[in-house]
Amino acid sequence: AMHQHHHQQQQQLELMKAVGMNLLEYSLSQSMEAVAGLLLERFASFPFCIPPLTLLDTLSAARPEDQQSAPPASTLHSSSHLNATLHSCPSPAAPAPSTSTAATPATTHSSALACIVAALSAVSCKLAAVARGLCAQPSKEEADYRAWSNAQVAPLAKFWCRLSVLHICVGALRVACTEGMSPLLALSSWGTILLGYIVGALFIQPGSPSSEVILVAVAVARASHCTALGLGLISISGTDHLLCSWRVEVVAEVLIMSLMERVRLNWMVPLRALLALSTWLMYVQMGLSCPATQAVLLNLYSLGVTAAMEQRCRRLYSHPRLHAKQQACGAFPRLHTKQQALADGDANQAQVSNNGFQPKAP
Question: Whole-structure pTM over 0.70, yes or no?
Fold first, then answer.
């Protein structure tokens, strides 16, 4: 029995050696894309029968905790079944896999589809991680910093929203006068972005925790407006072409909007990705050269300015002088209250002593 078991192990080793040599020869004669497609097909077929989503999750390595967990028992077969399958395979002298040109397109398409599905799986995992980070409860120190930062940003953001509403109304009136159209029709082309700035001008408050959420809504409104311009849903006026030819939007986006519409960085990164996509669509519609490169660089510069401003604010917040000033401002009301209580107590005591003293009649 031991001799037979040893003979079976030798046969398995020879078979694995032959498979490895055949795979090496096939990979040298074909591209790595075809090899990847062949591996995915073989692992998903009998006798392994591993589900394709499990393979893609393993290849994408988007979630390291999934790699530590054992594979489900339903996807594996017993060792006896695997040995029986391996014994039923051809001998080591079996020919190498066919390298016909007819099988290459199918393998290429399957591997390309596998890469796309793996990329989508990784992106979905990253978005889920970002969503978990947004829903997580911040620490007390972080919450105090966010309240202080919102108090600094909210007045400038409210002023910027009011100025933007005025700017859009003046621009729409100018377009209506120059092109001979109704002012309401000219304003309707700015509908989403005008609504976002109106909400910001009305509801952004320095002490309100929803001010940052309103700024996110303003950025989403700007992205939707640029997307509508890029898809041709809204006609691009001559003024827009003129401003883009002078690159005024670059200066406004990098030096003004990245400072006035500043939110926390873990919110700003997906917003900048959305703005980059919408800006690319708008640049394509306007016929600018290298639209994708320009859109990505524009939003990267803006994100860098926002990150630098965030770093500066954190450094100012952690400065000892600021904490001393906050403690002094917090101590002044308590000191005033104590002095007022002492003054009220002295007045009450003097009144009681006066009421208790009765002069004698002559």
Answer: no
pLDDT value at residue 48:
61
Residue 46 shares a structural domain with residue 144: no
In this structure, the answer to whether residues 85 and 167 fall within a common structural domain is no
Q: Could you report how far apart the first and last alpha carbons of the chain are, in Å?
A: 137
Tally of structural domains, the chain: 2
* CA 88, 94, 98, 99 torsion-angle sign: positive
- Average pLDDT of the chain to the nearest whole number: 74
Residues 167 and 244 in one domain: yes
Q: Are residues 224 and 195 in the same domain?
A: yes
What are the pLDDT digits (tens) for 284-307? 999 999 999 999 999 999 999 999
CA–CA distance, 328 with 269 (Å, rounded to integer): 37
Lowest mean pLDDT: which of 92-101, 146-155, 246-255?
92-101
Range of the domain at 181: 139-317
Closest CA to 196 of 233, 168, 173, 172: 168
How far from the centroid of its chain's Cα atoms is residue 32's Cα? 32
